[in-house]
Amino acid sequence: MAFCSEWTALVITCKTRQCAAAYQQQLELKQSRGLLSKDLIVFSIEDPQDDIGSGGATLNALLVATEHLSMKKGYTVVTSDVLSDAKILIIHMGRYFPYDPCGRSFVCLPLVPENGELEDLVTNFDCLFYTITKQLANGSPPGLWVCSSDMLFQMPDSSAAIDWSNINVDDGVLAIAVPESVEYALHHGVYKIDEDNCMKDLIFQGTQSQISACCVNGSSKVPLVTGIVFFSTYASEKLLTTHATPPLDGCTYLGSDRGIEPVCISLFFDLLLAMATGINKKEFVIGERSGAFGKSSSPLTTKQKQFMQHARSVLWKYFNGIKLKVKLVEEGVHSYLDMWSSPMEYCSLLRQKTPVLPGFKQSMTVHSHVDKQSLVGENVLLINSVVEKGAMIGNDTTLVHCHVTENVSVGSNCYCYGLNANACRNLTNGVPDKSSIVGIMVEFSGKSQERLFACTKIHDRLLDNMDFKDDSETCLSSRAKLLANAISSSKFLPYSYRNVMAKANKGKHNHTLFMARIFPIFHYQYRVNISHSLKLLDDDLSENTFQFWFDCAHSSYCEMVENVNHIAEFDHRLSLYFDVASRKLIDVLSANLDTSLLPFFKTFVLRGKHQLVFDLLDSVAIDAVDTRKLEGKRPDISARAFACIADVLGYMAWDKAGLRSGPSANKKWKEPLHLLECGNIKDGVLGLARVREKWLHNPDLLIRAARHYEGAEQILIRHAVKSVACFIKSASCSPLEDNIWYIAECPARIDLSGGWTDTPPLCYEFGGSVVNAALLIEGKRPIGARIRKIKNPVILLTLLGSNDLETTTVECSLLEHLMDYFLPQSPAALLKACIVLARLVNIDSMQTMEEQLMTKYGGGFELQTWSRLPQGSGLGTSSILAGAVLRVVFKLAGQSHDSKSIIYSVLLVEQLLTTGGGWQDQIGGLIGGVKIGRSAAQLPLSVTTEVLNFSDEFILKFSAHLKLIYTGKTRLARNLLQNVLRNWYTKRPDIVKNCCNLKSNAEACAEACKTGDLSKIGTHINMYWQQKKVMASGCEPELCARMMRALSPYALGQSLAGAGGGGFLYLLTKEPMTKQAVSLLLKGVEGAQDVVVYDVGIDRIGMTCYYLPTTST
């Protein structure tokens, strides 16, 4: 939802300083989350005086914005020159709103991301800002945009954006309108426009005939005023000039500081109306054409009217003659957030008129947590709410920012806002059907803040006149009599309360439910709570209820809304957000669901709640291996909890530290990591937390701490992978004789589809499917190992190269020489790990290596390995080599293992090495032919292999079309693996979806192989390559991309082998091609002069083992 606009300044106007401070906090939070540009000048300001109107608020906001821009550009006085290239947006918060104490602009909407969780609740502000930024103002010239927030506004189709190349505003003003019916427009404002779309008149709440006369293009629709206006730079400068012109200077903070009386100027019915071509100066100035002041019903005194006429004469002087054009947005949808509506009508508006926002969808459950043992009815809308065990929510009810506690019932057709846990404790009989409850954090002058509840019926209209005639009192219900008493005796509220009214008419709303002081807030003897207000909803009230009510001090709905503590209200929302997020976090991790928690982590960190999420994640990691809380130990969940902690640490460091990947063996972390290795998860988690606490103070330490948590995650992955040990079967066989080499040779492998899904933890959390093929390269098996006994009681480990200079021999005569088996970069680490796993010697034994070797084998042994493939080839070399080594060392030990047990043993070796490999490489090189390997999403990890039966004819055909190209670029798979595992644990929706695609593509590729369809196989290879690039960004070096583009016209399919990033590229050609022909295709590719093309063939046998006398070479 990042908007990152081209705006120069964003100004929010509101009624009070406290309100401005609350909105400023919200804007700065949006800026910190990247929703608003960091360079954008953002501020929220209070109106300098009461009742300056939307026009006065616009003038004051423009003045303040111009001052900021002048100062930023080095001026010492306010100058309109800064407006020449500025693009300013002013949003008016306007009047308070009874159904959401935070105001219309911050009404939370029923929108959720199309994928993943909410980072923050979507508000009307977000939708308005998006619509103006991306659809209305995108491409507009510099100038001033003004927007009211008293409506929901949307343009559903992105193609509906205004094309500014076809609009000529010149030095004028552009007003945005939408087509609406005459009936709807009777209660609102309408533009009357001429054939050039210039405004002739602006009519507010006119008669049906007046409104009908405004219909456009021969339709029955009229141009409805939306509250969105654009002022050109010239018009903006004109407006700014009036800040020093009496009496309009009374609208600004400068006028207030000079003691000048305020003047109420409407943006539309005073300022814009002066630009209308269809009215004259006289009727404008005296108020015959106005929203309110010139009417006979106006409460203004003669002096006030003269003051207003003076102001209007100034407006006429400055703005008459400026051309105001109306842009009718045909696709626009406009819905007022109206105080005249009942709570039921407001709920319908939320459900039916919510704007569309790209990347989001409408939902009936928005960032809410519902306990499985609660009962929620049909068509219930939940926004940022908690419903606990045993609670009951009736049909068609709306809950917004509510916490319904255990066993509390809320009836059907209700609207509840801000119903908190404390209030629920006093709901002995629950919330009755068809009720509206709005909880408001109120702070009356001189008193502490408290949450009060305005309780009405769902169909009550707050502004309907509720005068009760004396001659009908006998027919009234007891509730109506109470209301009649309260309304008739209610004192008239101060003029400042007109802020919340739909129209500033002093007497009009005196006898309304909104203005009546009916809600009990204080009793001299008892504590007043929500239940006392709820009793007022009963049609029959008891005598005791009457008496209690009379003995109370009361507040009106209006007074509550007027005295809302906005900061406390936003804090209430945030507290519920964290409550819901915490509950969801536990649910997601406990079941290891494919739901990304990154949005939660980001918000926890931005709001300074990192310790809360750390404590939650620590408890999840411990509980996952506590059999008292789960059916069995789940190290996979603990590992994910560690990955989550690493993500939180990464967010805390933000962009001020180095790369996430790095070492994780600092001595200060050694003890808790060792506890994890030993299986003592609880103490390990607590130990990690103690060290973590000391590493939170700067970005570099945070990133290093994140690396150590990823190291802890790897330890628990190793615990999970070790579950394959239960499937390893061995049998005794004749031991290796003297003077004999026992040799294992293996083909390489290419992965045709599904790679990465074989990698822990994906393979046991999500399940894996991989199709690969065993390859002969230039007719040979390129990978092998051999072992023989020697008389000297030492272990010789030889890595054979192409010549003596490239051959390395490591002699191990002490147990200590094997101790670095877990360090991948140490000499012969892979061979050492295989020896440790096969227990040829016991490195924990009290016996020396010499004693063990002499006892078991009568001497030492020599183990030699080779690979005719370069490091980082992508052909599975290290895993396949591990399989070959295990085969020969098991033989030395007198043990025989089938291929499946060798495959599992390789997994264990790679965990010992901490390289974290998967199972597909060893399947590809140990088992011949083309096959599909699969693993289920479960522990213990189990792998099955299905060899795909090919005819000899198809094998030859496939081999004739297959070419292998060494690109000259190498990259260790581990470098990519760390990023892939990190992405997987985030459960980003795109990564989870890509994993689904990898598996389904593998299954489809296997079917294509079975039918011998080369074209389909090529299609699946191409799809696979695209999926690899999603899984591991950076796996396609530019040289490889150039080569693939050059080969594309001749290829059915192509991909880099293995993890990508370099190594070998394999190519399935449309027609059989020689390697010389392929080399010619690459001759003109920049940087590809040294590539080597190989002939390859499918090896149907796989690993082969045989004996050779030691005298042979």
TrEMBL record:
Tree of life domain: Eukaryota
Domain GDP-fucose pyrophosphorylase: 80-523
GHMP kinase N-terminal domain segment(s): 852-929
InterPro entries (UniProt xref): GDP_fucose_pyrophosphorylase, GHMP_Kinase-Related, GHMP_kinase_C_sf, GHMP_kinase_N_dom, HddA/FKP, Ribosomal_Su5_D2-typ_SF, Trimer_LpxA-like_sf
Assigned keywords, A-Z: ATP-binding, Kinase, Nucleotide-binding, Transferase
This protein's name: L-fucose kinase
